[in-house]
Amino acid sequence: MLPVIALVGRPNVGKSTLFNRLTRSRDALVADQPGLTRDRKYGMGRLGPGPYVVVDTGGLSGEDGVDLLMEQQVRQAIGEADHVLLLLDAREGCTGGDAIIAEQLRRTGKPVTAVVNKSEGLSRDAAANEFFSLGLGEPKAIAAAHGQGVHGLIVEVLESLPPVEMPEELPEGIQIAVVGRPNVGKSTLVNRMLGEERVVAFDQPGTTRDSIFIPFVHDDKHYTLIDTAGVRRRARVNEVIEKFSVIKTLQALEQANVALLVLDAQQGVGEQDANLAGHILESGRALVLVINKWDGLDQGQRQQVREEIERKLPFLDFATHHYISALHGSGVGDLYRLVDRAYANATRDLATPELTRLLELLVQEHQPPLVRGRRIKLRYAHQGGKNPPIIVIHGNQTEHVPSTYRRYLVGRFRRALKLSGTPIRLEFRSGDNPYEGKRNKLTPRQIQKRKRLKKYVSRKG
């Protein structure tokens, strides 16, 4: 499983800034004001030698009057974590609140690293010496806002953790993660696909507590179904036993080849459905959108559900929409065909001549915009990876390609290559200009012409 790193500390010490730096995103709200982060926020770590999960938490004051709900969220994050980073403020120095939080962390028995943030402009020894008194080993001085020391910190933390454990001896085949909110029918769908009561299905949210890996064979093909715990809004996660559900679901997505995002047609598309869809899109997994409990709706309600999906999940336009009733089995048998097709498209080999010819046609049909009076030129394309398909496009000024033109290329590539069921990622690369920084040497004739022009201009003046 992926390692989990939790960020804790007093308010306004830079936890969200470090979260954004580690995830290479701007997902966490950052401002020079304490108390902005209240709930736990999860993200996939992109900085460092390997993948991991980062959990951002609200600030703890270390005093008796601390917000109990926020403290509960932080305690759950600590319980989920394999390693805890205690963020400290080099500008304020070691406070009584830091000492109280450090004492609480020592009692958990979790590995803890004291991280002294905002150390820019200070020597590392001067910034860290004051925090040895916390008894958490050698403090690490960083500047999260500028990225100083962050890479070395995360490398050291990941090296201290045990290697990532994968499921034991899973047979070769397509790994299918079944994800969704609680009580949308995930376990019922898994049982229906397997043809037996393999997992507990009950009309109560939170029946499934952990991710369950179930290898099986269907029509002489190997599959592994991953039944995950339902991910509810963090404010509603109260039971201690439920606190791992988000982490387990994110880890299951990292191990899966194809995700089945199960929606409840009778409840509609909620905020948490959109959040889960965003995680699937970020992970790059092939996707089939499964709308369950479809049999109990009339024509008007069905049309309303379709319009709601298009309105709230427009970024999943690549996914096939499949309508089923897991309880009665209608439409479930077709899921294998859709999963096979999505996986085949995600792992397909794309020929360089075909991609280049297609790129030329798309550019002729709709030219890239001008940048400072110069046209962006896209010259050729080739495949850069699979699952999801990565198309690498070479040209000049590619760093200025706008997002609207990227979406145009992705949509047309998908339509022309028939890559339904999988996201497509584009990578743009610009060649080095051999004449950059070099002045053009004038010929003797050009020099004489310049002198005559100067004389002419001076006479006119």
UniProtKB/TrEMBL annotation:
Binding-site list for GTP 1: 9-16, 56-60, 117-120
Pfam families: KH_dom-like, MMR_HSR1
Record region (Disordered): 429-461
Highest taxon of the lineage: Bacteria
GO biological processes: ribosome biogenesis
Record has Hydrolase as a keyword: yes
Gene3D superfamilies: 3.30.300.20, P-loop containing nucleotide triphosphate hydrolases
Binding, GTP 2: 180-187, 227-231, 292-295
UniProt biased composition (Basic residues): 447-461
Residue ranges constituting the EngA-type G domain according to the UniProt record: 3-165, 174-347
Database matches in InterPro entries: G_ENGA, GTP-bd, GTPase_Der, KH_dom-like, KH_dom-like_a/b, P-loop_NTPase, Small_GTP-bd
This protein's record includes keyword GTP-binding: yes
Molecular function, one GO term: ribosome binding
HAMAP family documented for this protein: GTPase_Der
General function of this protein: GTPase that plays an essential role in the late steps of ribosome biogenesis.
Family affiliation: Belongs to the TRAFAC class TrmE-Era-EngA-EngB-Septin-like GTPase superfamily. EngA (Der) GTPase family.
PANTHER family per UniProt: GTPASE DER
Protein name: GTPase Der
Organism of origin: Candidatus Endoriftia persephonae
Lineage, opening ranks: Bacteria, Pseudomonadati, Pseudomonadota, Gammaproteobacteria, Chromatiales
